[in-house]
Specification:
Number of helices: 5
CATH topology of the largest domain: Neuraminidase
Structural class: mainly beta
Helix content: under 10%
CATH class of the largest domain: Mainly Beta
Mean pLDDT: 77
Number of domains: 2
CATH architecture of the largest domain: 6 Propeller
């Protein structure tokens, strides 16, 4: 036909260098999957494991882990913050298992009573089996005082005892509130560490370990544990009163950094997150109490507020980091414009650098609303996402339509995780 161009651009056969350059501009893991799905040449010329920035978190919504239930096909709901949409992933590995924590794109799944534990990457479906807590654990007293060259041999010579009771009764499935890794999980020397708040215990294992080993720090056993993480070769162990920074390659924990907190902040809730410039301590100050949930409790069905109208506790968030001038002191981070904090259930906390995401507002906190008020129409519990500025703590509902799709049964925690291909 006249007037139509005779030449068409062959997008499928762009030079490999151009495909590489385009693929490096993609930020979102979902966009990268779409990019590789365009055609075979694009998939061949792009990186199978891209250098993507740390992803915007997905919120994994709670589900009821019903062992051997014919009603549970393993489909799980995730809210994708980047595209503001709900995603459904078929994860039969989660049937009968409770998701209780996440780290680096991996979910920690625990069976009732701690009879089975494993790490699952919901994007790649890769699984890493961990020792069950039904096997007696070992107490490795003063772990960091043992020379590194004999740690592997010492792992098997300490007395064992049982902590399985902390995974019972109801709620025990998510007794673990934190998991962290010392290196990439493909490294045989990778140390996997978990924190059990009810026991106030930190437990470690390796991928090939047959049981967990408690890291017993007798020097500060009177100070309550709050959180832990691993960053740049060091363990950060947060107590209510102090924080320890320990290099496991050193011969003694006394060579680590000890930061003492002022007594007035001992009762303040504290969490650790990995930020752009290292590990931050997040202090959460309650500004005022909201009693709306108490007011509606016991009222008649027609007086219960509609879903999405619940108010959240007003809180102020402060970020601190070790002072470069005095490593034993914390300095407040006054410029939080490149940081966003995400809080989930089960005391879960993570951060994202907003420099990589124009759609994410810096200096903000994002929380999923706990199911404190039930929709009396019988459609279950509903989760919403709220955001606030760190310095004022006035939470506002994040506009989305996912709440009406996310009617769930009251069960385990809602968990943020950052998807990746690794």
């Amino acid at each position: 036909m006249e007037g139509l161009p005779t030449d068409f651009r062959d997008w499928a056969h762009l030079p490999p260098l151009i495909v590489h350059l385009i693929s490096e501009k993609v930020k979102s893991i979902t966009d990268y999957v779409r990019f590789r799905a365009v055609c075979s040449p694009w998939r061949f010329d792009s990186f199978p494991k891209p250098r993507l920035p740390p992803q915007l978190p997905w919120l994994m919504l709670p589900y009821s882990p019903q062992q051997n239930s014919e009603d549970d096909d393993g489909t799980r709901l995730f809210y994708d913050l980047w595209e503001s949409k709900m995603r459904k992933l078929h994860l039969p590995e989660t049937i009968g298992m409770m998701c209780c924590a996440s780290e680096c794109g991996w979910l920690l799944l625990v069976a009732t009573g701690g009879t089975e534990l494993f790490l699952l990457n919901p994007i790649t479906r890769a699984c890493i089996q961990l020792p069950p807590f039904t096997t007696p654990v070992k107490r490795l007293s003063d772990f960091f005082m043992i020379p590194p060259e004999i740690i592997r041999e010492a792992w098997d010579i300490f007395p064992s005892y049982n902590v399985r009771d902390y995974f019972e009764p109801i709620g025990g499935n998510f007794a673990i509130s934190r998991v962290t890794f010392s290196t990439d999980l493909t490294d045989p020397a990778c140390l996997i560490t978990v924190f059990i708040p009810r026991y106030q215990g930190i437990f470690c294992c390796r991928v090939d370990s047959s049981c967990w080993t408690e890291v017993h720090d007798r020097h500060y056993s009177s100070s309550e544990f709050a959180d832990l993480t691993y960053y740049n070769g060091q363990f950060y162990i947060l107590h209510k009163e102090i924080m320890l920074v320990i290099d496991p390659s050193k011969a003694s924990c006394r060579t680590g950094i000890i930061c003492f907190f002022e007594q007035e902040i001992w009762p303040v809730s504290k969490f650790l997150v990995q930020g752009k410039y290292g590990v931050y301590v997040v202090f959460v100050h309650n500004i005022e109490e909201e009693d709306e949930a108490e007011e509606v409790r016991g009222q008649k069905y027609e007086n219960v507020p509609k879903v999405g109208t619940e108010k959240m506790l007003k809180q102020k968030f402060e970020l601190y980091q070790f002072s470069e001038q005095s490593p034993r002191l914390l300095r407040m981070i006054t410029n939080t414009s490149n940081t966003a904090i995400f809080f989930g259930d089960n005391n879960q906390c993570l951060s994202v650098c907003t420099d990589d995401w124009d759609s994410l507002e810096g200096g903000s906190v994002y929380r999923c609303a706990p199911p404190s008020i039930r929709d009396m129409h019988g459609s279950g519990w509903h989760y919403n996402i709220y955001s606030a500025k760190m310095d004022d703590g006035k939470f506002e509902l994040v506009p989305s339509d996912f709440a009406k799709e996310a009617s769930i049964g009251r069960s385990g925690p809602a968990i943020w995780f950052q998807p990746n291909f690794f």
